[in-house]
Amino acid sequence: MVARMSQSHPSRRLLFYVEQNYSFDILRPLQAEARRRKHEVRWLVVGEASRKLLNPGEQAITSISAAITYGPDAVFAPSDRIPGFIPGLKVQVFHGINEDKRGEPIPERGLFDLYCTQSPAQAAMLLPLQAKRGYFQVVDTGWIKLDAILEHRDATIHYTRPQILYASTFTPSLSSAKALLPEIKRLSQKPNWQWLVTLHPKMDPAIVAQYQSLENDNLKFFGTDKVIELLHRADIMVSDNSSILQEFLLLNKPVITFRNRAPHPCMINITATDQMEAAIAQALNPDEQLRKAVASYGPAITPHLDGQSSGRVLDATEKMLGECWKNTKPANIWRNFKMRRQLNYYKFW
Question: pTM (2 decimals)?
Answer without folding.
Answer: 0.85
